């Protein structure tokens, strides 16, 4: 087995089971973030062109029915842009709490060592401290990155929504 794989296994053993949970949740977060960027750069422009073409092909653009249709098209765009943004934001908020759970489990491990061996077992206490600090660091680090990308995706969705509404209004 390659050395870096062994080091990775040791790292996750030191961090405890909460660190594995943080890895799984972080992986889900990054999958959702990547999906949103792929959507914004590849799928959304095609969908927007299709919606704008449907609107431009209409001869009647000023009747009550046409205005409701335009509102529906705008809502369709908004729904597509907002998809997965709430789960991304929620996961970003959950990650520090998982890190805190890691802190608590690490502190419990430290207290177990103190209960059994007293304060004389420095190695056992150091393992507990590692179990407390690694998940906390991982949860906070991933959450900070998630905050940036969540805010960036929300901003991009807002800009694209406004641009799409402008295009629907101009083509009257």
TrEMBL record:
User: Which BP terms does GO give this entry?
Assistant: protein import
Is Transport tagged as a keyword?
yes
Query: Cellular component terms, GO, for this chain's entry?
Result: plasma membrane
Pfam families this protein is in?
MotA_ExbB (PF01618)
Q: Which residues cross the membrane?
A: 20-44, 94-117, 129-151
Q: How does it sit in the membrane?
A: Multi-pass membrane protein
Superkingdom: Bacteria
Q: Which residues form the MotA/TolQ/ExbB proton channel domain?
A: 68-164
Q: Where in the cell is the protein located?
A: Cell membrane; Membrane
Say if the entry is tagged with keyword Cell membrane.
yes
Q: Which UniProt keywords apply?
A: Cell membrane, Membrane, Protein transport, Transmembrane, Transmembrane helix, Transport
| Family indicated by similarity | Belongs to the exbB/tolQ family.
Query: By what name is this protein known?
Result: Biopolymer transport protein ExbB
Q: Which organism is it from?
A: Methylohalomonas lacus
């Amino acid at each position: 087995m390659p050395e870096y794989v062994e080091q990775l296994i040791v790292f996750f053993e030191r961090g405890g089971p909460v660190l594995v949970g943080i890895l799984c949740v972080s992986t889900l977060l990054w999958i959702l973030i990547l999906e949103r960027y792929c959507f914004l750069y590849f799928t959304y422009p095609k969908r927007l062109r299709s919606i704008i073409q449907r609107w431009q092909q209409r001869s009647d653009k000023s009747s009550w029915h046409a205005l409701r249709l335009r509102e529906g098209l705008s809502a369709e765009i908004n729904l597509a842009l907002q998809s997965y943004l709430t789960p991304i934001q929620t996961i970003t908020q959950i990650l520090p709490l998982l890190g805190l759970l890691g802190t608590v489990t690490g502190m419990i491990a430290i207290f177990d060592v103190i209960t059994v061996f007293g304060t004389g077992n420095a190695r056992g206490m150091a393992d507990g401290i590692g179990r407390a600090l690694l998940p906390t660091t991982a949860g906070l680090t991933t959450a900070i990155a998630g905050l940036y990308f969540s805010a960036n995706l929300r901003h991009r969705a807002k800009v694209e929504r406004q641009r799409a509404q402008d295009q629907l209004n101009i083509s009257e």
